[in-house]
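Input:
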Amino acid sequence: MKISNSLKRVIILELSIPVALLILGIYHGLMQTIYRAGILHQTSFLKLEYYQGLTLHGVINALVLTTFFAVAFGHATIAFYLKKEPDRRWTWISFWLMVAGAVLAAWAMLAGKASVLYTFYPPLKAHPFFYLGAALLIVGSWIPLFNWARIYVAWKKDNKENKTPLAVIGTLVNFIVWFVCTLAVAYEVLVLLLPWAMGFTTAVNVTLARTLFWFFGHALVYFWLLPAYIMFYTMLPKLAGGKLYSDLAGRIAFFSFLIYSIPVGVHHQFSDPSISRGIKFFQGFLTYGVAIPSFITAFTIAASLEYAGRQRGAKGWFGWMVKLPYLDPDRYLFAYLISGLILFIFGGLTGIVNASYSLNNVVHNTAWIPGHFHMTVAGPVFLAIIGMSTYLYSKTAGKRVFLPKLNVIIPYLWSIGVLIFSTGLMWGGLIGEPRRTNLGMTYLNRDNPLFHPEWVPTTTLALCGGIIMFIAGMMFILVFFGTLFSKRKEEAILELPVSEVYHDEKRIPLFDKFQPWLVIMAVIIVLAYTPAVINATQNPGPGAPPFTPDSPVPIVTEKTK
Amino acid sequence: MAVLDKYERRVLISLGATVALFIFSILYAKGRYKSDVPECLPFNKAYTEPKVNKIDSTTYQVFAVAQMWQFQPAEIYVPVGSVVDFFLTSKDVVHGFDIAEKNANMMAVYGNINKTTVKFEKPGVYNITCHEYCGIGHQNMQARVIVNYPEQ
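Output:
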């Protein structure tokens, strides 16, 4: 379909700005593996300090790229399926708020005033602009939800008996989860941290801040993941040459994410003090609930791909696996999505380990954790984002993909890199290698008394994987900007691949409206989080003064003097 | 017409069974092997002074205090077979506390007390590694539990 120039420009900017920033984000990803393998024994390289770079890596890759992309993809999905564009003025306000937020936070990080990592746990204090930037980015990303909800309600009025398109359900679920979970982090940032960082309050309750952060932090991973799920359900079967096995399974999966994404955050705090074992167990139990939609998806998508393989002439039990269009440059999106799915098998299984209550003692905060999440967020999420960024950009700008044969092998190369990298990290984690640590200074430095020889093979393996990932990442940057700087060759249109449905089940009203699910969502969140917040307010003692990363002496403000 | 395809339904049922098995395993480990997450204690100022208390010949309490960028006490001597209760807090930012060989894993948080119990059955040196970023000196932060030091 044709779209207005305004919407086209917003989508293109929201896709290309984070890809430009990604150059820095990926660069420091590679640098970390070099430091950690003990090749560099220094605090900084080329004026970028290790933990400053680690903060940039996390914030750019996991917050800025993902949020900008989710908004752009949401605009595209809603406009494409409901045939109506979001309000022009609010779309631009949302865009400028997100850009302003990203610029403020980027300045604080690049100036070295916010080396607090993307989790910004107090009482480590960042520059106020870092918190303000995060808040603006989030508020900017809220605005489209209200626009899309209005479009959806109007569409529903005219289509009472028609099923809402699955991609629309997915997009709305995703941004409702995002809106609710970011309320907690907005409270943390604007009420607890910003006044404290500016010296208006003297102490902060660290456990409460962490609890609010993880109310947001785990739902965040589904906010990353759901755009990829929308692509798996509504595009992948079509790209493979088949049909979606079950439309209803997709609806069940998306509504399960709506109710289970948030009340599971305490499983990131299994090792925290002041939160009772009961609530940790209960939220660990609910985390298994959120694994269910992923299992459903694994079956439904595999069944859809099997159908596609058979349509293409496959025989026997496993023949369909070799009959899929893995290396077709015209269907490169298939390559990006299938590689992500394969990585997600391992990402999902290791995630179940993390959620398993006392098993967390084995892996908590070790290198196992980044080993796990590089097979989720740097797996299906990242591959879906970069594949779709190239796709949406080339369609809406009317351009042909630069180096199409190179483009189609990028996801496979990336996946090989991730598998090697994550194997190294997870192996290291199981033998105590910590995450978020400049290992090259001490533990991987032969001249240091803290040298740990058993982490040499694990960090070397991660380095090898990291180099492969870096090469694949730079190939993507080349393809994306090569496309961007090429001349327009085709008509500029908004077009998404649309899968037909194999089992087109009867419309079940329960799976075609939001109200009952929103009620269940609210009830479970209240049940799961009321005791956690009570624990976090009552068990801790005095609040903490602010500290900067370079000194054990707290910052003295006018109030504390 | 069935609401859901029969294979789709079978997958849902086997999923339910798998999740039930996982939950049973966690509960079994909790009951049979006392495998659990750290204990939840309200804040008490008594734990903020680093020290080692010997309760009897094989029972110890360690009040561990994490700070930028060391643990106090930095070296803890106990005999083989000791059961040690670690009470952990932080003087400043958030720190980690990981004795990897013993799967003892806690966060040290200002104004909060964390607790876990470890039994040291074999002689040796057990590193306590800080595994949460705590500022520019984070990679230096390690303490040791020394089990059956010959002189002790």
